[in-house]
């Protein structure tokens, strides 16, 4: 799997990450969403795929994403044709191309409505005694495919993200945090593509201007796993 994770010592991550809590002073006054408050699990040598329910379509490996895009979109975009030296012209090309693709996929209900699973990167933040769990910060995974760079865009994420480990794991994680260890997670997001603008085509802003596709997914379930060391 070709992915790039972004963590807090990376400027891009700092710009893109979604912080699960705004502050300890306000955290205890909020109820939180049960979608975002979930167990923190250890894969124990198993694959992520083995933990995803059978009725959920995994979009994790490049080849899985490519097969999905082929069924939904038919052919990759001509990135060279879409790119332009004039930013206004390029923006107009992208706008028209996105509208054409939105219209073309409107009747593909079977594909659009099937739940999918994708990965985001995460790490543990502060310990919350009231929950016996940890707040979570999230950032995107970028996956290179033959269609371009894929960056899933989750919507409807809960504001409150907490991972709750079992007692023994919790004590181990607290000890590791005391040594200032950066503890990474694999976050599985499950949901369905939104109806009106399921995919957004554009270009990356990392200086290389590579073609980028953003599948827009309404998230209904989240799972937290410790990242294998």
Describe what you observe in this structure:
With 229 residues, the protein is of the alpha/beta class. Helices cover 28% and strands 33% of the residues. The chain is built from eight helices and 13 strands. Strands 3-10-6-5-11-13 form a six-stranded mixed beta barrel. The longest helix is centred in the middle third of the chain and has 18 residues, at 87-104. The radius of gyration is 19 Å and the shape is elongated. Residues 1-32 have low confidence and may be disordered.
Uncertain spans, ≥5 residues at pLDDT below 50? Answer: 1-32
User: What overall geometry do the principal axes of the alpha carbons give?
Assistant: elongated
Count of DSSP-assigned helices: 8
Strand order of the largest sheet: 3-10-6-5-11-13
Mean pLDDT: 86
Largest sheet: 6 strands, mixed, barrel
Query: Helix and strand string, N-terminal first?
Result: EHEHEHEHHHHEEEEEEHEEE
Strand proportion: 25-35%
By DSSP, the count of extended strands is 13
Helix content, binned percent: 25-40%
The N- and C-terminal alpha carbons lie at a distance of 16 Å
What is the C-alpha radius of gyration, as a whole number of Å?
19 Å
By helix and strand content, what is the structural category? alpha/beta
Question: Which structural traits does this protein have?
Answer:
alpha/beta, 13 strands, 229 residues, disordered N terminus, 8 helices
């Amino acid at each position: 799997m070709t992915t790039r994770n972004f963590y807090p010592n990376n400027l891009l991550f700092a710009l893109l990450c979604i912080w699960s809590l705004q502050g300890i002073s306000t955290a205890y006054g909020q109820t939180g969403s049960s979608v975002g408050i979930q167990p923190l699990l250890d894969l124990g040598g198993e694959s992520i795929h083995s933990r995803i329910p059978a009725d959920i379509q995994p979009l994790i490996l490049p080849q899985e994403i490519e097969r999905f895009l082929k069924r939904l979109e038919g052919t990759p975009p001509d990135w060279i044709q879409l790119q332009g030296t004039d930013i206004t012209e390029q923006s107009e090309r992208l706008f028209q191309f996105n509208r054409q693709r939105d219209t073309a996929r409107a009747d593909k209900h079977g594909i659009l409505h099937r739940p999918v699973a994708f990965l985001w990167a995460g790490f543990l933040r502060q310990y919350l005694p009231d929950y016996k769990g940890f707040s979570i910060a999230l950032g995107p995974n970028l996956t290179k495919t033959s269609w371009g760079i894929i960056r899933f865009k989750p919507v409807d994420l809960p504001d409150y993200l907490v991972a709750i480990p079992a007692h023994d794991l919790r004590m181990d994680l607290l000890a590791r945090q005391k040594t200032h260890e950066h503890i990474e997670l694999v976050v599985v997001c499950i949901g369905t593509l939104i109806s009106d603008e399921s995919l957004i085509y554009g270009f990356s802003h990392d200086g290389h201007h590579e073609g980028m596709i953003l599948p827009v997914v309404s998230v209904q379930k989240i799972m937290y796993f410790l990242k294998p060391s």
